[in-house]
Amino acid sequence: MMRRINIEIIFKLVGGNIMDRSKKNGIYMLTGKTTNKIGNVIFDYINNVLIASLGTKASNLLALYQSSEIIVNILFNMLGGVFADLKNRKKIIIITDLTASLATFLLYLFWDSKNSLFLIILINILLALLYSFNSPAYKAIVKDILKTEDLNKFNSYSNAFSEVVSVLGPLVAISTVHYFGFKTGMLINSISFLISAYCVSRFQVINYVQKKKKGKEKYMVVLSDGFKYVLKQRNVLELLIVSSFINFFLAGYNFFLPYTNIFSENQGIYASILITESIGSIVGALLNRFFLKKIDLKSIHYCLFFMGISLLFLALFRPFKWSMFFYFFIFSISLTIYNIKFFTYIQNTVDTEFLGRVFSIVFTVAVLFMPIGSFFFANFTTPSWNAFGFIGTGILFLFLILLIKMKMFKNKEEK
């Protein structure tokens, strides 16, 4: 049996304010994640612009750069989940962050503009490999360093900060390139990893779980135990299946978005939709934080209703320009709340010793379903506003199945 030790020690701050370890950990985690994301946005922007500037002759290089990260994550993410459950999560994050900082600093030192393209791709592959171990450990350690009642609050703020960076990050990247050049962007990314490592080093575990000694048990056996755990946890398995279908539909949604400039005959629509989505994500995170705190399967599933109905209305009432932005706004709010509640539910209900593997399984399955969705919608549907209605109908149908299941389960319990 596992022994859980809860330590509650408070810290007095200037002015008499009091902050416990959980809140202090949350601030360090938000600071590290936000700084790291800013660095990554700058890094990706610079590399994409640099490779694309070479014209069509570099199209294969750009495809290699963009796809290498996904391929590496698919191959190694589950192994990263096993490491997160067997090893010290804090050390994993610090080591991967420091290694990433060193790699991007070396890229800064040996930067030679267009002659560094293959070095950029190599470093990007290394960063993807490090992320495969860093990400499961980061998601799993949240339960170790935050109190249960702080999980939903943290996930809400984390999502809001992430969306702010998504909006402002490209502007920072453009300014960096304009005033300081491409090379400086690599240095900023290196520093961001260093700051992240420092923030993680300040984490103080408050929910310690003594891990079972695995001895020389093979990693594949440990990973298999993770799959068995998911299969036994009915609610977790249900969420995994639902999220897989949602990612299938989201792949179609993301596929059609760039075409809105074409079938709306307005070149500014796509950019306006992206801005609307970012604002919706921030609003959704704040709504979830202050008003929608309940975390259960029912509240998660009802997010699907608003996602589906907003896209269906978008297809039906597309002639009304401003209402179109309203539907994208509602969709973004609903998707954000779904994601926050999804991750919070997993963190709340999954045993700590399985968290790394569960998150890696969720990520891998989600990544696999997105290219399937992209291929399906690219070959069997035509880019138009009606395509969004088709996606919305699919999500509503999924919600209807879940609603019938919930009603049947409720009736069964009452009997």
From TrEMBL:
Single annotated GO MF: transmembrane transporter activity
Domain Major facilitator superfamily (MFS) profile: 1-410
Entry keyword set: Cell membrane, Membrane, Transmembrane, Transmembrane helix, Transport
Sequence intervals crossing the membrane: 92-111, 117-138, 159-180, 186-209, 236-256, 268-287, 299-318, 324-346, 358-378, 384-404
Location within or outside the cell: Cell membrane
GO cellular component, one term: plasma membrane
InterPro entries noted in UniProt: MFS (IPR011701), MFS_dom (IPR020846), MFS_trans_sf (IPR036259)
Bilayer topology: Multi-pass membrane protein
Primary location recorded for the protein, binned into one broad class: membrane
Database matches in Pfam families: MFS_1
Protein name according to UniProt: MFS transporter
Originating organism: Bacillus thuringiensis
Phylogenetic classification of the source organism: Bacteria, Bacillati, Bacillota, Bacilli, Bacillales
